[in-house]
């Protein structure tokens, strides 16, 4: 535990640098010069209230059948809640694979913290607003507004999990914009995200240390909200992760099990902290796309 503010700031900043600097985070944006085959990307779409700098990239099919309705998935980047970008390599890989398997993808930027600027819960509010924005624009995008999922990696995995397991009753839904639309999702995929923050690091996004504000850290942890009303959750974590301990995903899975939430934890042998759907250790597309198909496509779900 840390007992003075100066030490807290130094420790939190160091933790964020380590998290933000690993693998794909250090590589920066990887926005393709040309759209991938079969995919049309609408870049830098405004989805938040007027004046916000954060934008989204939409991953859409290059050809659309009239009357077709596709499920949609919000993609949340990592970067220690203080860095990262919607156009990084992992997010491009996920968005492209989603479109090629019958989905619309929405990769978002959200408010980022600094050591002087806490951002919780605004970063979560931004993610929930993206879900609402998809429902508001369902007609134009030919989206099935009743079937929306979320996926994220690392810090984005934490936020994706929070979107999945929290609702209006938890006091973490934004008042607006688009407050007339629900921000609930029908499934969530958490890629190696921190889930029990009381057993993680002191975080600048929360503005205080765990010692100073244990209740704040608990309320920002996905493990605190798991219950039988949550949608299905898929968790993936690598055994070679040196940034977020596998224990974080194990604690999340245990909380989901206790709460009665449908879930699966898949441990990927030898996988490092950052991977997308096609790491060298294992092709995860059948697993992740299959999970989305079961959860978001009515015919596959038996609806």
From TrEMBL:
GO molecular function: hydrolase activity
PANTHER family assigned: AB HYDROLASE SUPERFAMILY PROTEIN C4A8.06C, ALPHA_BETA HYDROLASE
InterPro entries xref list: AB_hydrolase_fold, BD-FAE-like_dom, GDXG_lipolytic_enzyme
Protein name: Alpha/beta hydrolase
Keyword Hydrolase: yes
Keyword check for Electron transport: no
Keywords attached to this entry: Hydrolase, Signal
Pfam family of the protein (one): BD-FAE
Species of provenance: Singulisphaera sp. Ch08
Lineage: Bacteria, Pseudomonadati, Planctomycetota, Planctomycetia, Isosphaerales
Domain BD-FAE-like residues, every copy: 57-256
Signal peptide as annotated in the record: 1-26
